[in-house]
Amino acid sequence: MLEQNLMEKIVSLCKRRGFVFPSSEIYNGFSAVYDYGQYGVELENNIKRVWWKEMVQMNDNIVGLDSSIFMNPKIWEASGHVSGFSDPLSECKNCHSRLRVDHLLTAINIQADEKMSIDEIDKIFFENKKSIKCPICGKNNFTNVKKFNLLVKSNLGNFTEDWSKEPAYLRGETCQGIYVNYKNILDTARVKIPFGIAQIGKAFRNEITARQFIFRTREFEQMEMQYFVHPDDEMKIYEEWREKRWQYYLNLGIKEENLKWHKHEKLVFYAKQAYDIEYNFPFGFDEIEGIHARGKYDLSQHAKYSGVDLSYIDPITKEKFVPHIVETSVGVGRTFLAVLTEAYTEEKIGEEIRVVLKFNKNLAPIKIAVFPLLKNKPELVKKAKEIYDSLKINYMCEFDDNGNIGKRYRRQDEIGTPYCVTVDFDSLEDKKVTIRDRDTMKQERVEIEKLGEWMKEKLTS
Ligand code: GAP
Hints:
Layout: H1 6-16, E1 20-22, E2 34-36, H2 38-57, E3 62-65, H3 74-78, H4 81-84, E4 86-91, E5 98-100, H5 101-107, H6 118-127, E6 146-149, E7 152-154, E8 168-170, H7 175-179, H8 182-188, E9 195-204, E10 219-229, H9 234-251, E11 259-263, E12 273-281, E13 284-293, H10 297-306, E14 312-313, E15 320-321, E16 324-331, H11 332-343, E17 344-349, E18 352-357, E19 368-372, H12 378-391, E20 397-399, H13 405-415, E21 419-423, H14 425-430, E22 432-437, E23 443-447, H15 451-460
Parallel strand pairs: 3-9, 19-20, 19-21
Antiparallel strand pairs: 1-2, 4-5, 4-6, 7-8, 9-10, 10-16, 11-12, 12-13, 13-16, 14-15, 17-18, 21-22, 22-23
Helix pairs in contact: 2-11
């Protein structure tokens, strides 16, 4: 019942319940960008909070950063993005869809890796052309393969006639802001190698094909941590981070069978090792996070292009070296889609199907919903409002007096609220409320006075 159209169901739920809206919808949309609605933004914030805690709060030697989206364009030359940050593009001559050739090849089990030249990819593509069909119209009539740069240009601060010749780019990844602040942090944060810098922020890519909902979008958020290490320790520390990042997904509530490692067989010249963690999305396993041992490439390139020495002098041994970098990089949107996929549950109750998002409680957008049994009984509404006002100081809560209780439960199930609290006529006498559990649907009576304590135990355990 579930697998077949799970993606459609998730997309529909996201729209219906205010998690994700297509961007600019009243203007017929805007391709590959999405807006996060009232529950979506809560889920996003919770995901980011968990990641930040895992990285910055729990590690003495990892500090945070919020660097700007616009940076000196030379940064993108130094990083190799201006010359090399591109995907192979072909156009279907029949329906004019623009297509990523590496994806078309993967569909017939041929891997075009990052190291191949466009000519090599073009050759493979045309050798296999007969067995490749346009995923949009089904025909196989394609243009030659060309390189398509993914950096998004802007005209920031550029008042020349042809600003596109000297563009400032919107950042294509957040980590470049980390590399160029490495020295600032080193000079001000009293950190010693090994140490990390973590950042959450928007990145922009002119993706050729942007399908699969929020999986691949042109504007997205990344959570990246760059760990600066002694060259001799790089691989040991890399393995430690691989282990930690795997465990992180299990702690998010993701089942181990829905995760797998993808090892990059052909590495870019400077990389020591590269693995992705893949999640079993409704359309199959695909990348959620990259964990890369990047050697000294990033700091060396920025030292070369900026003319600033970015080497490190060990305070004890006085050894001077360019730190190597272990990177972990994950998208907020992909995590969002993974935890939604994981949480989406359908249960048959009598003749009805109950749709419930069984999020980990710390990720749930709303933690507690408070209901008066009846809307038109002022004494019940007053008591429920009092309870709601006291709980909302510590938790995201929702007050709902609309429709019958069954409908209110279903609505909260669909947004994944762990607990619903109902004030009924007995509550006015016995000073107790009914708490209904999202997952078990079991109900229990709890004293109003002890409600705060009860919630604390359940929601912070
Ligand atoms: N600094 C390394 C880096 O940016 P990446 O593999 O290109 O590496 C890292 O991106 C992560 O960012 C991916 O694993 C994915 O979660 C997310 N990501 C990348 N491109 C994306 C896109 N177009 N839409 C949504 N998320 C994206």
